[in-house]
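To fix ideas, we quote verbatim a fold written out as tokens:
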Amino acid sequence: MKEKKRIVIKVGTSTLTYENGKLNIRHLEKLCKVISDLQNQGNEMVLVSSGALGVGMGKLGMRTRPSETNKKQAVAAVGQCELMFMYDKLFGEYNNIVAQILLTKYAVETPEKAETIHNAFISLIDMGIIPVVNENDSVATDEIEGNNFGDNDQLSAIVATLISADKLIILTDIDGLYDKNPALFSDAKKINTVELITDEIKKMAGGRGSNRGTGGMTTKVLAAEIATKEGIDVQIISGENPELIYDIFDEKPIGTLFLGKVKDNDSN
């Protein structure tokens, strides 16, 4: 990790917002600062950001997620505007330019479409621009209903695969994968390294995420399964302090590391 790398960072709604839906400015500012610093070092950074629905709820003063799909779409549209405004402002303070990419599962459903998306990413990266990716919740209802990319966790793995990333880092509200729910069991133990994602590992992941998001550890393990099959290491860490990302680059043990499989170069 000390070498210059192409890195995808995924940040969840629980990291970006408070329980009331308002932006967690401290987390957001630190995240943008760290990513900007790593970009300035010569790394190629891509940010996959959840939060549109959560931020929209906060801006509109809503305490709970709306139940109607059309209202979720409307709230997400408001939130996406606010979210990108903040990213543009904060990254701009560190002289980095961002570009918004909104995707749906249909954008990558064929090799031809996937190639088009790949080319867009590579062009931005080559220009030194940081892509900020989210699912297009205002027109695609799958993600806000929790049955598409899984709160952007799976989307981040797909993006990492599309651009042949060296690593995917997922920031969440827990500091890694535990053998059982640490909120319920005091003797729960964190799994530091996962060499192979088995059914047992999947069972450890448990249920869904917070009121403001649609994901949970289950979707993160599924994302890790997608990326590691393509030889991409995936690391799940706490989003409480985005500066912990530096520890990954300094090769310190942190969170849970899912090792990418060594790809078979055999043409058969």
Remarks:
- Residues 69-93 form the longest helix (25 residues).
